[in-house]
Amino acid sequence: MDPSLAAAYARCAELHRVHGRTYYLATRLLPAWKRPHVHALYGFTRYTDEIVDRPGSLTAEERARRLAEWTDQFLSAMAGTPVDDPILRAVRHTIETFNLDHDDFARFLKSMAMDLEVREYADYEELLSYMEGSAAAIGTMMLPILGATDSERAREPARQLGLAFQLTNFIRDVAEDLARGRIYLPLQDLAMFGVTPADLHAAADRRRADPPVQALIAYEVRRARGHYAAAASGIPMLDPGSQACIRTAYHLYAQILNEIERRDYNVFAGRAVVPRRRRLAVALRSMATASGTPVRPPRPVPKSRVFWP
């Protein structure tokens, strides 16, 4: 690899290390030759998301223009136009190396554009239409890098894993998303538990969830666990060298839900994180697990271990 391309991959790896600590730890378990390509995908998706979510003083119109410009640069890079941006150089090389499906990237960019306009979702079907690009497509674009004995059979579990990870983030980050003016929990679900958007804002202000909000969060946790269960069968299909990485990511993200449960579904008192010692234990256990071993879907935390933070 020429030095400038190596530097481009190093830039993506740094973005991954700083912003995606859980996933970055899991990526360290991949064969060394695969890691830069995972970093490239993370760097591209993270940078695009930053245009939408962390705009500083930019107006919505300015963010839309920046995203359109970035999308045009990406499409030009895919068409073979020389590019100087390190993230685009790395992701183009990864796409070419693994012949990744351009449609996955188109769906991802479409969902990022939705974030500039859509502030809430009427029901889960509407949210899934967004998550198809922002989450499921990332799961499937990763699959050729990870490798699988049967790529067609592994595709749906990969899609489900992307959905599980993103729904976990939505549940954990309710307060953070409210501050950005967005509600990713479906309004139909809020209504089911007698919760209004104003109730969520009030819970965020007092940093404590009342029983209806707790019930809502518990419902979303169960829904996320359904996606994890649907994703479990795909991990033993992966190349042996990729399984420890994805087992680790699978269990660590699922344990974020456990942390939320331990806090009695109060996602407003602080970010739910898996303690470092437990993260390392999960990684070591995944490394020691024989390839092909079935994955046990996540289970609820015993009632005796639930507490208020």
Give an account of the 3D structure.
The chain has two domains: 1-117, Farnesyl Diphosphate Synthase, CATH 1.10.600.10; 120-309, Farnesyl Diphosphate Synthase, CATH 1.10.600. It is globular, with a radius of gyration of 19 Å. It is mainly alpha-helical. It has 14 helices and no strands. The model is unreliable at 304-309 (pLDDT under 50). The N and C termini lie far apart (49 Å). The chain has helices at residues 3-19, 21-27, 35-53, 60-78, 86-98, 102-114, 124-146, 151-172, 174-179, 187-192, 197-206, 211-231, 240-262, 276-288. Helix 3 crosses helix 5 and helix 6 (102-114) runs antiparallel to helix 7 (124-146).
- CA distance, first residue to last residue: 49 Å
Number of helices: 14
DSSP helix fraction: 55-70%
The gross shape turns out to be globular
Q: Based on helices, strands and strand pairing, what is the structural class?
A: mainly alpha
CATH superfamily grouping of the largest domain: Farnesyl Diphosphate Synthase
Approximately how much beta-strand content do the residues carry?
A: under 5%
CATH architecture of the largest domain: Orthogonal Bundle
Q: What is the total number of structural domains? A: 2
Assembly status: single chain
Task: Please write the string of helix (H) and strand (E) elements.
Answer: HHHHHHHHHHHHHH
**CATH top level assignment of the largest domain:** Mainly Alpha
